Automatic annotation (TrEMBL):
The chain crosses the membrane at residues 48-67, 74-92, 98-116. It comes from Alkalilimnicola ehrlichii. This is DUF3325 domain-containing protein. Keywords: Membrane, Transmembrane, Transmembrane helix. InterPro entries: DUF3325 (IPR021762).
Length: 128
């Protein structure tokens, strides 16, 4: 059960990372947030934040499935996660920031389930 939660967390983190990388480009940022009062979009923070989220995603994937299977499975997760910004940028670009925050918050809410103490799967592993 914990592997499924970790996989969905890796997926949500990959979506947030891809959206961060997408919004790091000024053209996409202005398309998604046309009424932004910022003179200069926070491109560096979005760029590095996107890469950090993708790194967290690959680490979560490897922790769920092991190193070899997790790394190759992460490419599948990354492929599906890249579809969200591509499709939304074409059809509903203003939804990108909201989806990015929703994916990030859903991934953050799963952290206590994955790494919390006293979860049933961790207790079962300790008894064996």
């Amino acid at each position: 059960m914990i592997e499924i939660i970790t996989t969905f967390t890796a997926f949500a983190t990959a979506i947030a990372g891809m959206i961060g990388l997408c919004l790091a480009k000024e053209r996409h940022y202005r398309l998604a947030l046309p009424l932004s009062k910022l003179a200069e979009p926070p491109r560096r923070r979005l760029f590095w934040g996107g890469w950090v989220l993708l790194l967290v995603s690959v680490l979560l994937s490897m922790s769920a499935w092991g190193v070899g299977t997790g790394f190759s499975g992460w490419f599948g997760i990354l492929t599906v996660a890249a579809l969200f910004p591509v499709v939304l940028l074409s059809y509903a670009p203003r939804w990108l920031p909201g989806l990015g925050w929703a994916a990030l918050m859903s991934a953050a809410s799963a952290w206590p389930l994955i790494f919390g103490r006293g979860s049933p799967s961790q207790e079962a592993r300790l008894r064996i």
